[in-house]
Amino acid sequence: MTGKKSMSIADAFWTWVDSPDTPMQVASLMIFRPAEPAVEFARRLVAAWSAYPATSRPFNYLTHPRPVPLPGTREVITDVDIDYHLRHSALHSPGGQRELGVLVSRLHSAPLDPRRPLWEMHVIEGLEDNRIAVYLKAHHSLFDGVAGIRLLAETFTTAPTAEFPPPPWARELPKRSPRRTVGRSLGQRVIDAVKVPRALSTFALGAVRRNDPLVGPFQAPPSALNAAIGPQRRISTAVLDLGEIRALARSSATTVNDIVLALCSTALRRYLADLGELPDVPLTAMCPVSVRAAGDDDGNAVSLILADLATNEQDPLERLAAISASTTAGKNHLQSLDAGVLSDYAILAGAPWLAKQIVPGASAVRPMFNLVISNVPGPRTALYAGDARMEEFYPMSLLSKNEALNITILSYDGKLNFGFTACRDVLPHVQDVAVYTVEALDELAEAIGEGALT
């Protein structure tokens, strides 16, 4: 072992809000189709990767959390038990999407062992059509979504190979890039620091401003998405063509993110209407914004904006326009700050949310936002494990107190892959939201105009 080192505040944040009902773990689900029988491929993959010790961060980190506001510590260990962390599972063959979803929901519900490095990988055989799945779960304190996807993109290859690549816990580490504040004068750093309270004030006043597209905290209405949650999760997925999303963005003079939020908004509006619980006030989404520098490969580097989902708007074009105005205002607000302080701004702006997680009774207060919707850029071309092409790549995220749904989207090889993570008790039919999201694409395309998808 090496000596213990203090965690950054951004990483420690996720240990402070971890609880039995809200384990702060994120995951990726990857589906591969090998040329050989999938059972043999899965067994060879597990045998090959079992031979590698965990030599790469953050897979060799042992975490020692401390109570808020004290950051915990980490130490690098050399005796990581790979046989514990790398699991080999099987569905009753031939397993379909439903059977895989049931298994992954159970895996995502199980907490990580705090006495060990906070990650697990499961290789799952038994899928129909000669496929296997690989499910990687890790605590959010180890890395955020962008870092996790970058790590997996560096693990797999961009062309078929005869041999398996080394697993993520044994990959060669890229060099860390210097912090963005390096080379900046002391005076400029002071000026940047002074801007943070001003930006926080502008953000906070959004709760009382009217007719301002910049969304502030606690404008979100109480909703069926904001009930008390338990530890069991239900996972659902959906896939859309990225080219079609880009065509809609061009035709409507908006962005891909705006279109994605509009699709989610339409699906949530329909789902809540089915329940008879659509609020008159629009839902609010918290959208993480990556502020990671190139070469940073672990830890957390995220800021945030709040987006008006305009679920009170019946017309899909009016809904999209309100969403676009909201996200534009949020991005412009962040651009008033230097990149070097955006993570600090996010922690301070999220302080009320943190209080709701750790202060007894605070979760009963009106929600700061209704759900998290995160859009993570992924690899633009196909990835391979040996000769097996990765056909699908889904993100799965975490839930917080009184937040029963998370939607995370990952772009991969010309597709947008949606991962819906829900509390099993509060939203047992989250698959309806996934179906409605897919169907929302045709509705929005029709509203934007004929030929919008070409």
Automatic annotation (TrEMBL):
Name the InterPro entries on file: Acyl_transf_WS/DGAT, CAT-like_dom_sf, O-acyltransferase_WSD1-like, O-acyltransferase_WSD1_C, O-acyltransferase_WSD1_N
The answer to whether UniProt assigns keyword Repressor to this entry is: no
Question: Which residue range or ranges hold the O-acyltransferase WSD1-like N-terminal domain?
Answer: 7-260
From the UniProt record, which GO molecular function terms apply?
diacylglycerol O-acyltransferase activity
Q: Which GO terms describe its biological process?
A: biological process involved in interaction with host; glycerol metabolic process; response to hypoxia; response to nitric oxide; triglyceride biosynthetic process
Per UniProt, the keywords (alphabetical) are: Acyltransferase, Glycerol metabolism, Lipid biosynthesis, Lipid metabolism, Transferase
Q: What is its EC number?
A: 2.3.1.20
Query: Pfam families annotated for this entry?
Result: WS_DGAT_C, WS_DGAT_cat
Q: In which pathway does it act?
A: Lipid metabolism; Glycerolipid metabolism; triacylglycerol biosynthesis
User: What is the enzyme's main class?
Assistant: transferase
Domain O-acyltransferase WSD1 C-terminal, first and last residues per copy: 299-444
Can you state which reaction this protein catalyses? an acyl-CoA + a 1,2-diacyl-sn-glycerol = a triacyl-sn-glycerol + CoA
GO cellular component labels: plasma membrane
Superkingdom per UniProt: Bacteria
Q: Which Gene3D superfamilies did the record assign?
A: Chloramphenicol acetyltransferase-like domain, Nonribosomal peptide synthetase, condensation domain
Assigned protein family: Belongs to the long-chain O-acyltransferase family.
Its protein name is Diacylglycerol O-acyltransferase
The species is: Antrihabitans stalactiti
